[in-house]
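Reviewer 2 asked us to include a model.

Predict the structure of this chain.
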Amino acid sequence: MTTPGKPRPLSLTPAHVAKVDRAIADGGPGPGAVLHSDADYDEWVARMIRSHPAPGSPTMLFAYGSLIWRPEIEHVGETVGVARGWHRSFCFRMIRFRGTPEQPGLMMALDRGGQCRGVLYELPDDDLEGQFGKLFRREFTYKPPNSMPRWIKVETASGPVPALAFVMNRASPLYAGRLSLEAVAEVLACACGHVGSGAEYLLNTVAHLEARGIRDRNLWRLQALVAECIERNNGTAHANETAERLMIRRPV
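Predicted model (structure tokens):
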């Protein structure tokens, strides 16, 4: 782990990302997609508040990816914590947002196994329903949900605390399974959707983790591989080949 405030230079740069990012129209949910309704989200909110493992205590949110650099929620405090039994993994296949059906991307999710160092946000307790509703609408759109809200245990310097986290739903048809870093790098080096590219997502995540003194060895290696892929080729042949592989449902 590096010292906060003295981040180590990354191999992946905004110049690399600029070679991948391009204007892409939103193709919409796609045929056969079933979206969550307001009633569905309200039910999820009620379920998670009802199952709060420590009612009356501060509600913590565990952030491991984009919630660190774009939380979009109010919080009254933050600290670093470790979630054991979970790890960051680009195992969520994206056919919208940061990918397309023709060139699927990959999004990072919290998958089973290993451990993950991230940021714990303390949420204000005056509008927990509103905060959860905003979070859930951001984190999952389709049925079945790909990122499932779940209470997990996170270790901190002051001891373990329960925290809300979004973990990968392995029953989702968008679950890509375990992929090698090299295969992930090929996808992130060329996939892009209407909200941006996978390379941009990776760069933002690694840079903000590094600024907090959090070094994820797999992500650090991945950002170097993505930079190499972008420099080595224009992504076309690799994208087509990898997209075909990702369209095949991998066994859970």
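The chain has eight helices and seven strands. Residues 82 and 117 are 4 Å apart (CA to CA). We have added this to the supplementary material.
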